Amino acid sequence: MANTPDDGATDVLEPPEPPAPLPVKPQRDRLGLLLSGLGQTLITAGVIVLLFVVYEVWVTNIFSAAKQEKVHTELIKEWESPTGDDPVVKAELGLPSGGQYTIPSGTGIAVLYIPRFGKDYAKTIVEGTDASDLEKGPGHYVGTQLPGQKGNFAIAGHRVGKGEPFLNLDELQPGDAIVVQTKATWYVYTVLGDQATKNLSTPNALGVPGREIVHPSNTTVIDPVPGHAGVPASKATESLITLTTCHPKFSATQRMIIHGTLTRTVQASGSALPKELPGGTI
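-> structure tokens emitted (282 positions)
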């Protein structure tokens, strides 16, 4: 039987119901992605910097302590040997043939004591100021004078890491003792400056202050007469000592310079120490 309108059927085609839309995944905010990546990069960079600081400040100190101990032991052994030589004396006297004796780079030449830094402060000074030399300890500027000589006995040392022998160089005051030991002699230097006012900037009669801050390119501070370029050691009237290190701490943009003058010389006598050192009697 044919359908009739009453049957509820129709001949009109009707489109099927559209499918339900797929869920749209929310897109991550581009700024959020950028900030997240930047944050991770900064964290990584921070970790790298921290590891570098740990290495420079602590790990290099461990390595340098071992090198300092080795060079110190070798120097004392040389001094105590009946046939041992004092490199400082050899350099002063020259070779038997009449030629000049050159101290090998990195060789221990003397021991440095600075009472202001504590009773246990003692650092073997090596010949030379190359990076490998200063990893062993404070280094003598080649070409400057030797301990006790007229002119300027100049020494460089690290302030942070690699043994940091001059970490507290800024604590020195006018009148403080700087003592240098060789095989046969103790040399006692005194930091320049006004002892009454504790002013390190006050110069002595030669115009040399106790402390100055200079650019790394200023090498006149290690001349025979500091600050007087061109004056040869033969014209020097005082025996000076100069200590140089980086300034400020954790930076190499400047150099801190400490100057001292020789105030007395004491012949070594067994295990006796100069009176400027703890327990000293001579």
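The chain has one domain: 54-267.
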